[in-house]
Write a structure and sequence with these properties.
The protein has 14 helices and two strands. The protein is mainly alpha-helical. The chain has a two-stranded antiparallel ribbon. Helix 7 (144-158) packs across helix 11 (236-259) and helix 8 runs antiparallel to helix 11. The chain is globular and about 85 Å long. It starts with a helix and ends with a helix.
């Protein structure tokens, strides 16, 4: 198990280095002069040249990337050029809000999706199965930003059941959870459909395997076979999809945090990109990719715990 985890961890570090370096290179090569955006239209050529020299913008791209990773190894994410503060300060302030939003979306969508998928497989070709299939496809087809806007209009503005904006009062956990309901619902709805369809297909495949037939022949109750023996194996693809799907949830969180005015990583990335605040953008991207890879590692670890066959693979 330890060797399996080390292999996955080494792969995650390699992906982190390649992905962040590629994003840095793309950002640097974008058209436009960041010094003009940051210093304003009244800045002189001398001020722009001094700022570019200070930030290392005149160096070749490969040198800038190596300097960036050198600072990261030393624990320095850079300096926020607009507010003159360490990049780690706004990033670490925003990360808990985004992590809480993604966790809320995963918890409710995975719970409902696994339940619907298991019930659909157990009631194959019934009216419940057909209705669940239609709803799953409808949920998958609904873009998260459209769901966010409609849920805001219906549940916050029209019905006034939930707050429209904000993340809740700091230190007040019930209020923060209350503010999580609408954005968590908005970005998690499509994943209910994905997980339900995946679990249903996997359950039907598992139910036809020999060990399930043997359990039925021994007279084990059907509910025990479905929800203990079959579901444990059938849920593995859903765990993998959820681990990889964190990247999709991160992109959806950008829209949700803008629509609901939540102070998260997505909103911070949007504000930093529009202002060409390179250090904050790269700090956000580094943390976001690291968060995504961590969730993928956790999904692999859970899969290895549930399925010992994975631990034996080289």
């Amino acid at each position: 198990m330890g060797l399996y985890f080390l292999q996955r961890f080494a792969l995650a570090l390699s992906i982190l280095f390649i992905a962040v370096s590629a994003l840095y290179a793309i950002m640097v090569m974008l058209p436009g002069d960041p010094t003009s955006v940051l210093l304003g239209p009244r800045a002189t050529e001398e001020m722009r040249a001094n700022y570019a020299l200070q930030m290392g913008l005149n160096d070749p791209v490969i040198v800038q990337i190596l300097n960036f990773w050198g600072r990261i190894i030393n624990g320095d994410l850079g300096q926020d050029v607009l507010r003159n503060r360490p990049v780690s300060e706004p990033v670490l302030q925003a990360l808990p809000y985004t992590a809480a939003l993604i966790a809320a979306a995963i918890i409710w969508s995975a719970t409902l999706g696994i339940l619907l998928g298991a019930l659909s497989a157990a009631k194959r070709n019934t009216a419940f199965d057909r209705i669940t299939g239609i709803l799953s496809v409808a949920f998958i087809a609904a873009p998260s930003f459209v769901v966010a806007l409609w849920s805001l209009l219906v549940f916050a503005v029209l019905l006034r059941w939930f707050p429209a904006i904000g993340a809740g009062e700091p230190g007040n956990l019930p209020d923060q959870l209350y503010h999580l309901i609408l954005p968590g619902f908005a970005i998690g709805l499509s994943w209910v459909g994905y997980i339900a369809r995946i679990v249903r297909a996997s359950m039907l495949e598992v139910m036809s395997e020999n060990h399930i037939r043997t359990a039925s022949a021994f007279g084990i109750p059907r509910y025990r076979i479905i929800y203990i023996y079959a579901l444990r194996v059938a849920v593995l693809p859903a765990v993998t999809v959820l681990g990889v799907g964190v990247g999709g949830l991160l992109s959806s969180a950008v829209f949700a945090e803008i629509v609901f005015a939540r102070p998260g990583i997505g909103k911070l990335i949007y504000e930093s990109v529009t202002s060409r605040n390179y250090p904050v953008v790269m700090g956000c991207m580094l943390v976001s990719i690291g968060f995504f890879l961590t969730c993928t590692l956790i999904a692999d670890f859970i899969n290895a715990l549930l399925d010992p066959r994975l631990r034996s693979k080289k």
